[in-house]
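Duplicate of #3305? Posting structure anyway:
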Protein backbone atom coordinates (compact mmCIF):
# COMPACT_ATOMS: atom_id res chain seq x y z
CA UNK A 1 0.00 0.00 0.00
CA UNK A 2 1.60 3.30 -1.06
CA UNK A 3 2.20 5.95 1.57
CA UNK A 4 0.99 9.50 1.13
CA UNK A 5 3.92 11.89 1.03
CA UNK A 6 4.07 15.55 0.05
CA UNK A 7 6.99 16.31 -2.21
CA UNK A 8 7.91 18.26 -5.31
CA UNK A 9 8.89 15.12 -7.22
CA UNK A 10 6.63 13.77 -9.95
CA UNK A 11 6.84 10.20 -8.66
CA UNK A 12 5.56 11.23 -5.25
CA UNK A 13 2.64 13.06 -6.85
CA UNK A 14 1.62 9.89 -8.67
CA UNK A 15 1.94 7.88 -5.47
CA UNK A 16 -0.30 10.33 -3.64
CA UNK A 17 -2.98 10.07 -6.34
CA UNK A 18 -3.05 6.28 -6.00
CA UNK A 19 -3.32 6.35 -2.20
CA UNK A 20 -6.22 8.80 -2.30
CA UNK A 21 -8.24 6.56 -4.63
CA UNK A 22 -10.13 4.75 -1.81
CA UNK A 23 -11.36 8.10 -0.52
CA UNK A 24 -12.58 8.97 -4.02
CA UNK A 25 -14.47 5.68 -4.21
CA UNK A 26 -16.13 6.30 -0.85
CA UNK A 27 -17.24 9.74 -1.98
CA UNK A 28 -18.64 8.24 -5.19
CA UNK A 29 -20.83 5.88 -3.17
CA UNK A 30 -22.17 8.77 -1.11
CA UNK A 31 -22.74 10.96 -4.16
CA UNK A 32 -25.04 8.31 -5.63
CA UNK A 33 -27.31 8.89 -2.64
CA UNK A 34 -26.82 12.64 -2.62
CA UNK A 35 -28.04 12.83 -6.23
CA UNK A 36 -31.57 11.97 -5.10
CA UNK A 37 -31.16 14.09 -1.97
CA UNK A 38 -30.20 17.06 -4.15
CA UNK A 39 -33.35 16.65 -6.26
CA UNK A 40 -35.38 16.88 -3.05
CA UNK A 41 -33.41 20.04 -2.12
CA UNK A 42 -32.11 18.25 0.99
CA UNK A 43 -28.39 18.42 0.19
CA UNK A 44 -26.61 20.45 2.88
CA UNK A 45 -23.14 18.92 2.43
CA UNK A 46 -22.13 20.72 -0.75
CA UNK A 47 -21.04 23.43 -0.79
CA UNK A 48 -19.56 23.74 2.68
CA UNK A 49 -20.45 27.46 2.93
CA UNK A 50 -23.95 28.92 2.88
CA UNK A 51 -24.50 29.70 -0.79
CA UNK A 52 -27.73 30.79 -2.49
CA UNK A 53 -28.52 27.17 -3.40
CA UNK A 54 -28.09 26.08 0.20
CA UNK A 55 -30.44 28.82 1.41
CA UNK A 56 -33.03 27.68 -1.16
CA UNK A 57 -32.60 24.11 0.13
CA UNK A 58 -33.25 25.33 3.67
CA UNK A 59 -36.41 27.19 2.63
CA UNK A 60 -37.77 24.23 0.64
CA UNK A 61 -36.94 21.78 3.44
CA UNK A 62 -38.62 23.96 6.07
CA UNK A 63 -41.71 24.38 3.90
CA UNK A 64 -42.01 20.64 3.18
CA UNK A 65 -41.40 19.82 6.85
CA UNK A 66 -44.25 22.15 7.82
CA UNK A 67 -46.58 20.57 5.25
CA UNK A 68 -45.63 17.08 6.45
CA UNK A 69 -46.37 17.99 10.08
CA UNK A 70 -49.71 19.51 9.06
CA UNK A 71 -50.56 16.37 7.07
CA UNK A 72 -49.71 14.19 10.09
CA UNK A 73 -51.81 16.29 12.49
CA UNK A 74 -54.76 16.29 10.09
CA UNK A 75 -54.55 12.51 9.65
CA UNK A 76 -54.45 12.02 13.43
CA UNK A 77 -57.46 14.33 13.82
CA UNK A 78 -59.37 12.40 11.14
CA UNK A 79 -58.48 9.09 12.76
CA UNK A 80 -59.26 9.87 16.40
CA UNK A 81 -62.37 12.04 16.01
CA UNK A 82 -64.52 9.24 14.65
CA UNK A 83 -65.16 5.66 15.72
CA UNK A 84 -63.68 3.04 13.41
CA UNK A 85 -63.66 -0.72 13.30
CA UNK A 86 -60.52 -2.46 14.65
CA UNK A 87 -59.33 -3.21 11.11
CA UNK A 88 -59.74 0.39 9.91
CA UNK A 89 -58.21 1.80 13.11
CA UNK A 90 -55.14 -0.45 12.84
CA UNK A 91 -54.59 0.55 9.21
CA UNK A 92 -54.88 4.27 10.04
CA UNK A 93 -52.54 3.94 13.02
CA UNK A 94 -50.11 2.26 10.66
CA UNK A 95 -50.27 5.27 8.32
CA UNK A 96 -49.63 7.59 11.27
CA UNK A 97 -46.64 5.52 12.42
CA UNK A 98 -45.14 5.58 8.93
CA UNK A 99 -45.65 9.35 8.68
CA UNK A 100 -43.84 9.85 12.00
CA UNK A 101 -40.97 7.64 10.81
CA UNK A 102 -40.69 9.58 7.56
CA UNK A 103 -40.68 12.99 9.29
CA UNK A 104 -38.14 11.86 11.91
CA UNK A 105 -35.91 10.45 9.15
CA UNK A 106 -36.13 13.75 7.27
CA UNK A 107 -34.98 15.63 10.37
CA UNK A 108 -32.07 13.26 10.98
CA UNK A 109 -30.97 13.40 7.33
CA UNK A 110 -30.63 17.18 7.56
CA UNK A 111 -29.07 17.00 11.05
CA UNK A 112 -26.30 14.57 9.97
CA UNK A 113 -25.31 16.90 7.15
CA UNK A 114 -25.42 20.20 9.02
CA UNK A 115 -23.43 18.85 11.98
CA UNK A 116 -20.71 17.43 9.72
CA UNK A 117 -21.22 13.83 10.85
CA UNK A 118 -21.16 12.44 7.31
CA UNK A 119 -17.95 14.23 6.31
CA UNK A 120 -16.28 13.30 9.58
CA UNK A 121 -17.15 9.64 9.11
CA UNK A 122 -15.79 9.69 5.54
CA UNK A 123 -12.48 11.06 6.74
CA UNK A 124 -12.06 8.78 9.75
CA UNK A 125 -12.96 5.49 8.09
CA UNK A 126 -10.49 6.09 5.26
CA UNK A 127 -7.70 6.80 7.78
CA UNK A 128 -8.11 3.33 9.34
CA UNK A 129 -6.78 1.17 6.49
CA UNK A 130 -6.83 3.56 3.51
CA UNK A 131 -10.30 2.26 2.65
CA UNK A 132 -8.98 -1.05 1.31
CA UNK A 133 -11.80 -3.01 2.90
CA UNK A 134 -14.41 -0.91 1.13
CA UNK A 135 -12.61 -1.19 -2.18
CA UNK A 136 -12.44 -4.99 -1.95
CA UNK A 137 -16.05 -5.33 -0.81
CA UNK A 138 -17.62 -2.56 -2.86
CA UNK A 139 -20.03 -5.08 -4.41
CA UNK A 140 -22.03 -4.98 -1.15
CA UNK A 141 -22.25 -1.17 -1.24
CA UNK A 142 -23.24 -1.21 -4.92
CA UNK A 143 -26.00 -3.70 -4.06
CA UNK A 144 -27.23 -1.34 -1.33
CA UNK A 145 -27.33 1.57 -3.78
CA UNK A 146 -29.22 -0.56 -6.31
CA UNK A 147 -31.83 -1.39 -3.67
CA UNK A 148 -32.01 2.30 -2.77
CA UNK A 149 -33.09 3.26 -6.29
CA UNK A 150 -35.33 0.21 -6.65
CA UNK A 151 -37.25 1.07 -3.48
CA UNK A 152 -37.69 4.66 -4.67
CA UNK A 153 -39.16 3.33 -7.93
CA UNK A 154 -41.53 1.07 -5.98
CA UNK A 155 -42.63 3.96 -3.75
CA UNK A 156 -43.44 6.11 -6.79
CA UNK A 157 -45.27 3.21 -8.45
CA UNK A 158 -47.37 2.29 -5.39
CA UNK A 159 -48.36 5.87 -4.54
CA UNK A 160 -49.21 6.47 -8.20
CA UNK A 161 -51.28 3.28 -8.25
CA UNK A 162 -53.24 4.27 -5.15
CA UNK A 163 -53.97 7.67 -6.69
CA UNK A 164 -55.12 6.01 -9.90
CA UNK A 165 -57.62 3.85 -8.01
CA UNK A 166 -58.76 6.87 -6.01
CA UNK A 167 -59.53 9.03 -9.05
CA UNK A 168 -60.88 6.26 -11.28
CA UNK A 169 -62.42 3.98 -8.66
CA UNK A 170 -66.15 3.61 -8.19
CA UNK A 171 -66.43 3.76 -4.39
CA UNK A 172 -64.61 5.89 -1.81
CA UNK A 173 -64.39 5.26 1.91
CA UNK A 174 -65.43 7.92 4.39
CA UNK A 175 -61.83 8.25 5.57
CA UNK A 176 -60.57 8.83 2.01
CA UNK A 177 -63.23 11.51 1.43
CA UNK A 178 -62.27 13.32 4.64
CA UNK A 179 -58.57 13.06 3.77
CA UNK A 180 -59.20 14.58 0.35
CA UNK A 181 -60.33 17.77 2.12
CA UNK A 182 -56.98 18.20 3.90
CA UNK A 183 -56.30 21.37 1.90
CA UNK A 184 -60.00 22.33 1.83
CA UNK A 185 -60.44 21.65 -1.89
CA UNK A 186 -60.69 17.95 -2.86
CA UNK A 187 -58.91 18.81 -6.12
CA UNK A 188 -55.75 19.47 -4.05
CA UNK A 189 -55.57 15.89 -2.80
CA UNK A 190 -52.50 15.32 -4.99
CA UNK A 191 -50.57 17.67 -2.67
CA UNK A 192 -50.95 15.15 0.15
CA UNK A 193 -49.68 12.39 -2.16
CA UNK A 194 -46.69 14.56 -3.11
CA UNK A 195 -45.89 15.22 0.57
CA UNK A 196 -46.11 11.49 1.30
CA UNK A 197 -43.79 10.65 -1.60
CA UNK A 198 -41.32 13.39 -0.61
CA UNK A 199 -41.07 12.27 3.01
CA UNK A 200 -40.92 8.57 2.10
CA UNK A 201 -38.00 9.18 -0.28
CA UNK A 202 -36.26 11.17 2.48
CA UNK A 203 -36.95 8.26 4.84
CA UNK A 204 -35.43 5.89 2.29
CA UNK A 205 -32.36 8.13 1.90
CA UNK A 206 -31.69 8.37 5.64
CA UNK A 207 -32.22 4.63 6.03
CA UNK A 208 -29.65 3.85 3.34
CA UNK A 209 -27.16 6.35 4.74
CA UNK A 210 -27.49 4.35 7.95
CA UNK A 211 -27.13 1.00 6.11
CA UNK A 212 -24.25 1.98 3.81
CA UNK A 213 -22.17 3.61 6.55
CA UNK A 214 -22.68 0.57 8.78
CA UNK A 215 -21.72 -1.76 5.93
CA UNK A 216 -18.64 0.37 5.23
CA UNK A 217 -17.48 -0.19 8.82
CA UNK A 218 -18.33 -3.89 8.46
CA UNK A 219 -16.16 -4.21 5.34
CA UNK A 220 -13.21 -2.52 7.05
CA UNK A 221 -13.48 -4.84 10.07
CA UNK A 222 -13.83 -7.85 7.76
CA UNK A 223 -10.67 -6.87 5.88
CA UNK A 224 -8.84 -6.43 9.19
CA UNK A 225 -9.94 -9.91 10.34
CA UNK A 226 -8.97 -11.55 7.06
CA UNK A 227 -5.52 -9.96 7.16
CA UNK A 228 -5.11 -10.98 10.80
CA UNK A 229 -5.86 -14.60 9.94
CA UNK A 230 -3.30 -14.53 7.12
CA UNK A 231 -0.60 -12.84 9.20
CA UNK A 232 2.65 -14.80 9.02
CA UNK A 233 3.77 -15.29 12.60
CA UNK A 234 7.16 -16.65 11.49
CA UNK A 235 8.22 -13.41 9.79
CA UNK A 236 11.12 -11.46 11.24
CA UNK A 237 9.05 -8.28 11.64
CA UNK A 238 6.00 -9.95 13.18
CA UNK A 239 6.25 -7.72 16.26
CA UNK A 240 6.03 -4.61 14.08
CA UNK A 241 3.12 -6.07 12.10
CA UNK A 242 1.22 -6.82 15.31
CA UNK A 243 1.81 -3.27 16.53
CA UNK A 244 0.42 -1.96 13.23
CA UNK A 245 -2.60 -4.25 13.66
CA UNK A 246 -3.10 -2.91 17.18
CA UNK A 247 -3.02 0.65 15.86
CA UNK A 248 -5.46 -0.19 13.05
CA UNK A 249 -7.80 -1.91 15.50
CA UNK A 250 -7.79 1.14 17.75
CA UNK A 251 -8.78 3.32 14.81
CA UNK A 252 -11.52 0.88 13.82
CA UNK A 253 -12.88 0.99 17.37
CA UNK A 254 -12.95 4.76 17.17
CA UNK A 255 -14.84 4.64 13.87
CA UNK A 256 -17.40 2.17 15.24
CA UNK A 257 -17.96 4.28 18.34
CA UNK A 258 -18.37 7.34 16.13
CA UNK A 259 -20.91 5.36 14.09
CA UNK A 260 -22.76 4.60 17.31
CA UNK A 261 -22.79 8.26 18.32
CA UNK A 262 -24.25 9.21 14.94
CA UNK A 263 -26.97 6.56 14.68
CA UNK A 264 -27.83 5.44 18.23
CA UNK A 265 -30.75 7.84 18.69
CA UNK A 266 -32.00 7.25 15.14
CA UNK A 267 -31.95 3.47 15.64
CA UNK A 268 -33.78 3.83 18.96
CA UNK A 269 -36.57 6.01 17.54
CA UNK A 270 -36.97 3.80 14.47
CA UNK A 271 -37.29 0.64 16.56
CA UNK A 272 -39.73 2.30 18.96
CA UNK A 273 -41.98 3.12 15.99
CA UNK A 274 -41.35 -0.06 13.96
CA UNK A 275 -42.45 -2.53 16.64
CA UNK A 276 -45.94 -0.97 17.04
CA UNK A 277 -46.13 -0.69 13.24
CA UNK A 278 -45.56 -4.41 12.90
CA UNK A 279 -48.23 -5.08 15.55
CA UNK A 280 -50.73 -2.86 13.72
CA UNK A 281 -49.91 -4.66 10.48
CA UNK A 282 -50.50 -8.04 12.10
CA UNK A 283 -53.84 -6.83 13.45
CA UNK A 284 -54.86 -5.60 10.01
CA UNK A 285 -53.78 -8.81 8.29
CA UNK A 286 -55.56 -10.99 10.84
CA UNK A 287 -58.88 -9.22 10.26
CA UNK A 288 -58.69 -8.38 6.58
CA UNK A 289 -57.01 -11.17 4.63
CA UNK A 290 -59.57 -13.72 3.48
CA UNK A 291 -58.17 -14.49 0.05
CA UNK A 292 -55.46 -13.82 -2.51
CA UNK A 293 -56.90 -10.42 -3.48
CA UNK A 294 -56.72 -9.16 0.11
CA UNK A 295 -53.15 -10.44 0.40
CA UNK A 296 -52.11 -8.55 -2.74
CA UNK A 297 -53.71 -5.34 -1.43
CA UNK A 298 -51.84 -5.69 1.88
CA UNK A 299 -48.48 -6.57 0.30
CA UNK A 300 -47.16 -2.94 0.27
CA UNK A 301 -47.85 -2.65 4.01
CA UNK A 302 -46.14 -5.97 4.70
CA UNK A 303 -43.16 -5.07 2.51
CA UNK A 304 -42.71 -1.65 4.13
CA UNK A 305 -42.76 -3.12 7.64
CA UNK A 306 -40.28 -5.84 6.69
CA UNK A 307 -38.01 -3.32 4.96
CA UNK A 308 -38.01 -0.88 7.87
CA UNK A 309 -37.33 -3.59 10.47
CA UNK A 310 -34.58 -5.38 8.51
CA UNK A 311 -33.03 -2.07 7.44
CA UNK A 312 -32.56 -0.99 11.05
CA UNK A 313 -31.36 -4.34 12.43
CA UNK A 314 -29.52 -6.45 9.82
CA UNK A 315 -26.51 -4.24 9.04
CA UNK A 316 -25.66 -3.45 12.72
CA UNK A 317 -26.08 -7.14 13.65
CA UNK A 318 -23.66 -8.11 10.87
CA UNK A 319 -21.18 -5.49 12.07
CA UNK A 320 -21.41 -6.74 15.65
CA UNK A 321 -20.80 -10.34 14.53
CA UNK A 322 -17.72 -9.30 12.56
CA UNK A 323 -16.33 -7.29 15.48
CA UNK A 324 -16.82 -10.31 17.75
CA UNK A 325 -14.87 -12.43 15.24
CA UNK A 326 -11.68 -10.35 15.54
CA UNK A 327 -10.45 -12.01 18.73
CA UNK A 328 -11.27 -15.45 17.31
CA UNK A 329 -9.19 -14.69 14.20
CA UNK A 330 -6.24 -13.68 16.36
CA UNK A 331 -6.45 -16.80 18.53
CA UNK A 332 -6.87 -19.13 15.53
CA UNK A 333 -3.64 -17.90 13.94
CA UNK A 334 -1.32 -20.49 15.52
CA UNK A 335 1.80 -19.06 13.88
CA UNK A 336 1.54 -16.06 16.21
CA UNK A 337 1.39 -18.15 19.40
CA UNK A 338 3.64 -21.10 18.50
CA UNK A 339 6.54 -21.40 18.89
CA UNK A 340 6.59 -19.30 22.01
CA UNK A 341 8.39 -15.95 21.65
CA UNK A 342 8.12 -13.64 24.58
CA UNK A 343 7.82 -10.32 22.70
CA UNK A 344 5.37 -11.66 20.12
CA UNK A 345 3.29 -13.38 22.80
CA UNK A 346 3.11 -10.22 24.93
CA UNK A 347 2.00 -8.00 22.02
CA UNK A 348 -0.57 -10.58 20.86
CA UNK A 349 -1.92 -10.92 24.39
CA UNK A 350 -2.32 -7.15 24.73
CA UNK A 351 -4.08 -7.03 21.35
CA UNK A 352 -6.36 -9.86 22.45
CA UNK A 353 -7.29 -7.96 25.61
CA UNK A 354 -8.10 -4.88 23.52
CA UNK A 355 -10.51 -7.00 21.49
CA UNK A 356 -12.61 -7.82 24.56
CA UNK A 357 -14.88 -4.84 23.90
CA UNK A 358 -18.27 -6.47 23.68
CA UNK A 359 -20.13 -3.16 23.48
CA UNK A 360 -18.73 -2.28 20.05
CA UNK A 361 -21.53 -1.69 17.59
CA UNK A 362 -24.60 0.45 17.07
CA UNK A 363 -26.64 0.62 20.24
CA UNK A 364 -30.28 1.47 20.84
CA UNK A 365 -29.53 4.80 22.52
CA UNK A 366 -27.06 3.01 24.80
CA UNK A 367 -29.57 0.48 26.16
CA UNK A 368 -28.46 -2.55 24.13
CA UNK A 369 -26.26 -3.36 21.16
CA UNK A 370 -28.09 -4.22 17.94
CA UNK A 371 -27.00 -7.83 17.55
CA UNK A 372 -28.37 -11.11 16.24
CA UNK A 373 -29.71 -12.28 19.65
CA UNK A 374 -31.58 -8.99 20.03
CA UNK A 375 -33.15 -9.37 16.57
CA UNK A 376 -34.24 -12.93 17.36
CA UNK A 377 -35.68 -11.81 20.70
CA UNK A 378 -37.66 -9.08 18.95
CA UNK A 379 -39.04 -11.61 16.48
CA UNK A 380 -40.07 -13.83 19.39
CA UNK A 381 -41.91 -10.98 21.11
CA UNK A 382 -43.76 -10.05 17.92
CA UNK A 383 -44.70 -13.70 17.32
CA UNK A 384 -46.08 -13.87 20.86
CA UNK A 385 -48.10 -10.69 20.29
CA UNK A 386 -49.47 -12.14 17.05
CA UNK A 387 -50.61 -15.29 18.83
CA UNK A 388 -52.34 -13.21 21.53
CA UNK A 389 -54.09 -11.08 18.89
CA UNK A 390 -55.33 -14.14 17.01
CA UNK A 391 -56.54 -15.70 20.25
CA UNK A 392 -58.46 -12.62 21.39
CA UNK A 393 -59.94 -11.62 18.03
CA UNK A 394 -63.57 -12.80 17.63
CA UNK A 395 -64.53 -14.76 14.56
CA UNK A 396 -67.57 -13.09 12.98
CA UNK A 397 -68.27 -15.89 10.49
CA UNK A 398 -69.10 -18.28 13.36
CA UNK A 399 -71.87 -15.94 14.52
CA UNK A 400 -73.28 -15.78 11.01
CA UNK A 401 -73.52 -19.57 10.79
CA UNK A 402 -75.33 -19.75 14.14
CA UNK A 403 -77.82 -17.08 13.06
CA UNK A 404 -78.58 -18.85 9.81
CA UNK A 405 -79.19 -22.16 11.53
CA UNK A 406 -81.43 -20.52 14.13
CA UNK A 407 -83.57 -18.81 11.50
CA UNK A 408 -83.98 -22.02 9.59
CA UNK A 409 -85.22 -23.80 12.72
CA UNK A 410 -87.77 -21.07 13.40
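Output from current build:
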Amino acid sequence: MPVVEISDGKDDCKETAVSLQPKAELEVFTRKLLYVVSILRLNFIEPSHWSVGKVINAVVTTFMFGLACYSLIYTMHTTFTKTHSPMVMSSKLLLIAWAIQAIVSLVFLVYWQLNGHMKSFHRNIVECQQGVGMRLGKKLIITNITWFYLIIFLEIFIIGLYNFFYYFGTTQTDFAIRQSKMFYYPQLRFVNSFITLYTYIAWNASMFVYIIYTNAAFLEVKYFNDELEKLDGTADDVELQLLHKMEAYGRLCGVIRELDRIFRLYAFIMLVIIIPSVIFTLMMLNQRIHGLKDLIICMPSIALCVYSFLGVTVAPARLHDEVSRSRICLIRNESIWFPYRRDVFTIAQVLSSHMEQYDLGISIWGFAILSRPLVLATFSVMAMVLSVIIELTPAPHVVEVVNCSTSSIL
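Confirmed duplicate; merging threads. The chain has one domain: 19-396. The first helix runs from residue 10 to 19.
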